[in-house]
Design goal:
The protein has about 220 residues and is α+β, with helices and mostly antiparallel strands. The protein folds into two domains: about 80 residues, Winged helix-like DNA-binding domain superfamily/Winged helix DNA-binding domain (Arc Repressor Mutant, subunit A, Orthogonal Bundle); about 130 residues, Muramoyl-pentapeptide Carboxypeptidase, domain 2. Helix content is about 50%, strand content about 20%. The strands form three sheets. Strands 5-6-8-7 form a four-stranded antiparallel sheet, covered by helices on one side. A hairpin with a 2-residue loop joins strand 5 and strand 6. Helix 5 crosses helix 6 and helix 6 crosses helix 10. It starts with a strand and ends in a 9-residue tail after the last strand. The N terminus and C terminus are likely disordered.
Length: about 220
């Protein structure tokens, strides 16, 4: 199963899987697992350390020199498959079934405000263009690939990667969450004008500064 650029069946992928299962491991442990020389194991561990996927610490026994013990990092843990998208989709379906679409939409708006809240100090007091720039920067920090631009007094953020790809495929209601997230941070009238789910090049958010009235047919 893919793990970023690694495969679980690859040597380094098997090392990460072992450390994930065991919580820790030494060169000796990995030699027994993989049947490689100590030098070969260390070469793989050096690459994994360089990529921020494993970390080493010294562990002193009763006698002899300290032994290096390896464990995976949070970055490596994120490479293993998760089922958060399935959970999110089921929760959306359950809320819609029990509370209705209107309640679901309200809950998603509340979630968007919670997600935006930690960044409020970064955008407060800024001009419209500065808020859009900062919003784009925050989206990039969250792992999205984005550009922003200005045209005829409106701002546009082009998002080329979906933050909730599997969940959005199952339930497009989650798109409203991210529109609200962008609106709160940018403090402008925000509308999704193109969508990756419609096989368009990006999810594009048109942001009209709040001082400019939004027209109903815009």
């Amino acid at each position: 199963m893919p793990m970023g650029n690694l495969q679980l069946q690859s040597t380094r992928g098997r090392i990460l899987e072992f450390l994930q299962r065991s919580g820790r491991g030494t060169v000796k442990d990995l030699r027994q697992l993989l049947g490689l020389t100590a030098t070969g194991i260390r070469q793989h561990l050096t690459v994994l350390e360089r990529d921020g996927l494993v970390e080493a610490r010294e562990e002193r026994g009763r006698v002899g020199r300290p032994t290096l013990v390896y464990s995976i990092t949070e970055k490596a843990d994120s490479l293993f498959p998760k089922t958060y998208d399935v959970l999110a989709s089921v929760l959306l379906e359950e809320i819609r079934a029990s509370e209705g679409n209107e309640k679901l939409h309200q809950l998603l708006q509340n979630v968007a405000h919670r997600l935006a809240s930690p960044y409020s100090e970064r955008v407060q007091g800024k001009s419209p263009v500065e808020r859009v720039q900062e919003t784009a920067a925050i989206m990039e920090e969250q792992g999205c690939v984005v550009d922003w631009r200005e045209s005829d007094g409106d701002f546009f953020i082009d998002e080329y990667t979906c933050p909730f790809p599997k969940t959005a495929e199952r339930d497009r209601a989650v798109c409203a969450l991210h529109v609200e997230f962008v609106r709160v941070l940018s403090d402008g009238h925000t509308r999704l004008t193109s969508s990756l789910l419609r096989n368009e090049r990006s999810c594009t958010y048109r942001i009209r500064p709040a001082a400019v009235p939004a027209t109903h047919n815009a």
